[in-house]
C-alpha cells in the first residue's frame, strides 16, 4: 500500500529532486524557460512550508511519485511536477496523489489551485477534469504551444 510523505529531510528533498528529474526526462521537452535546473537546487526554498511543500508517494522502501505545491500569490497555489512512475500508473494512485496535494494546498490556506500540462497528456487532463479542474487562461508564459492551463477552487 502506498503512503504519502510531506518532504521534510535532506534525504527526502534529494528523493524529490531525483523524481523531478525523472519527470523532466520523461516529458522530453526543454524546461529551461521554467529555470528547472535552478529549481532542483532550491527545492527547500521553493517548496517549503508555510507557502508550499512536496509530497512523495512511497511504496515500501521505494519513492514512486511526487507532486509539489508552491505559492503563486496569497490566494493561489500552483501544482507542479506531478509524476508517478509508469510501473505504478493506472492503479488509482494518481488520483490519490492529486487529492493529497489539494488537501495540502487547502491546509496552507489557498483558495485556488492552478497547473499547466500538455495537450498530449490526455490521461493527465482527464484526471484533472475528473477532479473538478477547468481549463483557464494562461497564468504565466509557456513557450510550448501545446500547454493547457487548469484551475480549481478549493473553497
How would you describe this structure to a colleague?
It is a single chain. The chain is α+β, with helices and mostly antiparallel strands. The protein has helices spanning 10-27, 36-41, 43-46, 93-107, 122-130; strands spanning 2-6, 53-59, 62-71, 76-84, 112-118, 134-136, 147-153. The protein has a seven-stranded mixed sheet, with helices on both faces. It is globular.
Summarize this entry quickly:
With 155 residues, the protein is α+β, with helices and mostly antiparallel strands.
Topology:
Blueprint: E1 2-6, H1 10-27, H2 36-41, H3 43-46, E2 53-59, E3 62-71, E4 76-84, H4 93-107, E5 112-118, H5 122-130, E6 134-136, E7 147-153
Question: Uncertain regions: pLDDT < 50 for 5+ in a row?
Answer: none
User: How are the strands ordered across the major sheet?
Assistant: 1-2-3-4-5-7-6
Helix content: 25-40%
Tell me how many strands there are.
Answer: 7
- Strand content range: 25-35%
Main sheet attributes: strand count, strand direction, barrel closure: 7 strands, mixed
Shape: globular
Q: In angstroms, what is the radius of gyration?
A: 14 Å
Give, in order, the helices and strands: EHHHEEEHEHEE
Mean pLDDT, rounded to whole units?
93
Keywords:
alpha+beta; seven-stranded mixed β-sheet; 7 strands; globular; single chain; 155 residues
Amino acid at each position: 500500500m502506498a503512503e504519502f510523505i510531506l518532504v521534510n529531510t535532506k534525504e527526502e528533498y534529494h528523493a524529490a529532486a531525483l523524481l523531478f528529474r525523472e519527470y523532466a526526462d520523461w516529458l522530453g521537452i526543454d524546461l529551461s524557460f521554467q529555470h528547472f535546473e535552478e529549481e532542483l537546487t532550491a527545492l527547500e526554498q521553493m517548496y517549503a512550508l508555510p507557502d508550499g511543500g512536496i509530497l512523495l508517494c512511497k511504496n515500501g522502501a521505494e519513492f514512486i511519485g511526487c507532486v509539489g505545491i508552491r505559492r503563486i500569490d496569497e490566494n493561489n497555489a500552483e501544482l507542479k511536477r506531478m509524476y508517478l512512475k509508469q510501473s505504478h500508473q493506472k492503479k488509482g494512485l494518481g488520483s490519490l496523489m492529486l487529492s493529497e496535494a489539494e488537501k495540502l494546498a487547502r491546509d496552507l490556506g489557498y483558495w485556488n489551485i492552478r497547473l499547466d500540462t500538455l495537450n498530449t497528456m490526455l490521461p493527465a487532463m482527464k484526471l484533472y477534469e475528473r477532479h473538478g479542474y477547468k481549463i483557464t487562461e494562461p497564468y504565466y508564459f509557456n513557450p510550448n504551444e501545446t500547454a493547457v492551463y487548469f484551475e480549481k477552487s478549493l473553497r
